[in-house]
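Incident log, support desk, overnight shift.

02:14 A customer reports that sequence design results differ from what the structure should imply. Their input is reproduced verbatim below. On-call engineer (initials T.W.) acknowledged and began investigating.
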């Protein structure tokens, strides 16, 4: 029963507030004499005329011309970069050739140094051997050194 009473009170309060709001809005509209309610207007784009079409075509032509000019400028810049790349590749080839030549000279020098060191060691060993034996045996037994 309490529930039914609470629902009834809530319903009557809601109806009373709705009725009060309707009377207030009618009173506001009657107090504003000569005022019209707000109207929303939605505009639709019309058909472009010849002048606007010509203007748009002229703007598009100017944009295309600007893009063509930019393409020419970028193509010239690209050709310059290509020339620079070719020059750098030639310099790299020359530098690599010089490096390879110097490396070959260093390897040959190292080889000759090792050969000279080996030959010196052989000669020193032979000299020590000859110094330790009598002079007669040295002349007969000594092998003839090879020339290289």
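02:41 Re-run completed on a clean worker. Output:
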């Amino acid at each position: 029963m309490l529930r039914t009473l609470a629902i009834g009170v809530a319903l009557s309060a809601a109806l009373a507030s709705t009725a009060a709001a309707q009377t207030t809005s009618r009173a506001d509209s009657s107090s504003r004499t000569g005022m019209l309610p707000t109207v929303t207007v939605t505009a639709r784009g019309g058909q472009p005329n010849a002048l606007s079409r010509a203007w748009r075509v002229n703007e598009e032509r100017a944009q295309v011309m600007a893009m063509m000019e930019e393409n020419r400028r970028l193509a010239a810049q690209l050709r310059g970069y290509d020339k620079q790349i070719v020059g750098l590749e030639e310099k790299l080839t020359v530098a690599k050739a010089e490096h390879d030549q110097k490396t070959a000279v260093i390897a040959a020098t190292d080889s000759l140094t090792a050969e000279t060191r080996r030959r010196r060691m052989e000669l020193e060993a032979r000299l020590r051997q000859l110094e330790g034996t009598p002079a007669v045996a040295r002349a007969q037994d000594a092998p003839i050194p090879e020339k290289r």
